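Long-time lurker, finally posting.

We've been working with CBL-interacting serine/threonine-protein kinase 20 (Hibiscus syriacus) and I want a structural starting point before designing mutants. I don't trust myself to interpret raw outputs, so I'm hoping someone here can both generate the structure tokens and explain anything notable. Sequence follows.
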Amino acid sequence: MENKGKVLMQKYEFGKLLGKGNFAKVYHAKNIETSQSVAVKVIEKEKVLKVGMIDQTKREISGMSLVKHPNILELYELSKGKLREDMARKYFQQLISAVDFCHSRCVYHRDLKPENLLLDENGILKVSDFGLSALAECKHQEGYSTQLVEPLPM
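Top reply, 14 upvotes:
Generated this for you. Predicted structure of CBL-interacting serine/threonine-protein kinase 20:
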């Protein structure tokens, strides 16, 4: 299905196809009101149902909803080519920050690879595709469970 030019939720106009996997395609889109670039992942529901991956898809959505962080995907654009050492170090630090944040909330990505690391329009690294993520109950050393809630403002 060609989506270029289509409008989703009366808010996002689809652009070019950015990538595709076995069960989904990712399109560049633009917020009609703000002109902000976004990525839209279109999941082929029939294929997901056919191979029994509903639970994995729900786990991806759940994992991403539990982790709000500047280095986890919301907005992005792709970048190609080799990185200078200082830029690679900057992105690596952002990646470690995102992974540490997820782990502190007992969300484990389990599929980190270059295709799942994207850049937003400001050059900020975004972790995407939590489809293979695992959710675990957090236990402190004292044996207490961690509550999965937002911290109180200081």
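Before you design anything, note these points.
The radius of gyration is 17 Å.
The longest strand covers residues 12-20.
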